[in-house]
Amino acid sequence: MKISTEFIKLDSFLKAVDAVCSGGEAKIIISEGMVSVNGEVELRRGRKLRPGDKVALGDHEFPVE
After folding, report:
1. CA 59 → CA 5, 16, 24, 31, 56, distances in Å?
2. Which of 30, 34, 36, 40 has a CA that sits 20 to 30 A from residue 23's CA?
């Protein structure tokens, strides 16, 4: 997904790529350790993502551009 700002927060990114239906769902899957950023499990829903980062959820990987 291409972003037009300096960064996007992880929970907002997951909603934007339709990986989750709501912010509440994003909060749950992040807190359960189901999301990784650049190959490492990320537990902070406010993690700032910048172009070049890669978010993984299950078998799906979403690059930040």
Report:
1. 27, 18, 21, 18, 7
2. 40
